[in-house]
Amino acid sequence: MKTGVPRRWFALTLLALLLTSLLFSATALLAMVSCKDPLPSWNAGEAKDRILAFVRNVTQPGSPAFVPVQERIAVFDNDGTLCLEKPVPFQFAFSFERIRALAEIDTELAEQQPYKAVIDGDEVTLHNLDPAELEQTLMISFAGTTIESFQEAVNYWMGRARHPRYQRFYTELVYQPMMELLDYLRTNDFRIFVVSGSGADFIRVFSGTLYGIPVERVVGSSLVYELEKTAGGQRIIKTDKLNSYNVDGEKVLNIALHIGRRPILAFGNSDGDLAMLEYADNGKGPGLSLLLHHDDETREYLYAQGAEKAIETARSRGWQIVGMARDFKYVFPFELSQPR
Amino acid sequence: MKTGVPRRWFALTLLALLLTSLLFSATALLAMVSCKDPLPSWNAGEAKDRILAFVRNVTQPGSPAFVPVQERIAVFDNDGTLCLEKPVPFQFAFSFERIRALAEIDTELAEQQPYKAVIDGDEVTLHNLDPAELEQTLMISFAGTTIESFQEAVNYWMGRARHPRYQRFYTELVYQPMMELLDYLRTNDFRIFVVSGSGADFIRVFSGTLYGIPVERVVGSSLVYELEKTAGGQRIIKTDKLNSYNVDGEKVLNIALHIGRRPILAFGNSDGDLAMLEYADNGKGPGLSLLLHHDDETREYLYAQGAEKAIETARSRGWQIVGMARDFKYVFPFELSQPR
Question: Helix or strand or coil: residue B147?
Fold first, then answer.
């Protein structure tokens, strides 16, 4: 073997390659055990601590609260939990256009409620209508359409309509801390489901792009479907019969029917979520029930109407109440790109 | 810098480390592109070729038939498609014990059908009963139980009962080629659902351990559930009202309701799967519909009753008919550990 420059260069090259490779491995390792805050838009406090502790406990092998991956089911209400629901839920805002179109064709309909209130923009009357009845009327206003054409209409609306207060697309009005929580749970091998009083067909249009939740993990209200034979094959039509209005106890029954397993984490914001929050808290194993409290008039809305029983039960059973004013450092994703 | 042994050793060590690392990477790369047969229990032939070609086409980026991961939904019937269904489906065999127990308590019931036929072991009468009516009677025989206690009973039965012909546990009577197909599809990022006429609560007991399919990916027949308040919280009770009998067109409607997306691959074996096979073939994009034909009297059973329309449609529309005698090298997993 000759000595001299070539051999030295050879050794140095090898050394450089090895060091690069070691450095790369070390970086990868460091990233794996990194202590980066998984919930940067949450303020420090009890809510954040409890979420982090719960996830740590159920995921750490050997922990007495350890939950195997296949049982890590988390359920989230949609309106007012993952996204804004004031002055009306997304689905209402979308359906009002349909209501107006139907009333234009049928002048008799235009004199009936809720059509009249929608046409007149009469928010007081709308607010005083039974929300269950109102939502069912809105859903049924799409009877006769196929799921596909309904979803195309939703998609078109979402790319165009803007929220009256924020003047932003509805897709911008999700809660940033909740998006981080979804990511954090996913990283810890949770399977996350939306369990909403709004229509499943409606939420499925944006659950993938907005929440990273695939269509089959959306459980919602639904009309009875009908299979129609066509020349080319089949079409699925939405009828005017309600199949399921997914609120209160129905959320629990639909979780049993669609998911088939008790969730270990449930997050809601109203009395319609109460039964579901109880379900997550009822098992023999660990469970975390969380209630979002809308107490931030400046950045969002201040309201507790329709959540009175849920708040009371959360207090008495020690569920975690998440106060938007106190616990959310940022509310909406667009705040992150703005000077504070 | 000194020359001599230490430096040479240093360079050699570096070289060895680098070579090891390169070898390791090469092995990993080789494993990734390895040509191991993913369907070893399938005989070479049209069925196997078509499955392999379909999966290759929908997964290869740039292919005109490429299907993005989020749209790779596959649906499988259960009885007679993933597992044996003769002389009666698993759920029937299980429920017959319940029927006998109920008839023992209620002697009047014992004189009615199907109770009388079950008690007498009268296979001819059972065979001539309307299968839809029979199955619904069997399901309703569990009215009043909770989902949990029902599933405990199923679990207990499965650990004990043996199939009359094979004298093996029911869990051993799944089709080995189908298990390989499930694995192969999973490897290619398909989300796989069982869509069965049997009860979802029933199949969920073993879908995870037998098929690797989690409970939330089981769509089946169901009774209406009822939420009962208890001192400790809630209980979910199965009522005696049918919620959904998941056969024929109902399979398509339940896929729309539970999954929310058209499958690109559907596998069934009877007329009850026909609508679902049409659904997978109806989209604008690629779709593969497969029908398992029970033509192997020696290793399994020979029958086409209740599959006549499906076979005819499969032929006329060019769906893939999988012949058990011709296409299955092995039928059951236990054959793999036996001398041939």
Answer: helix
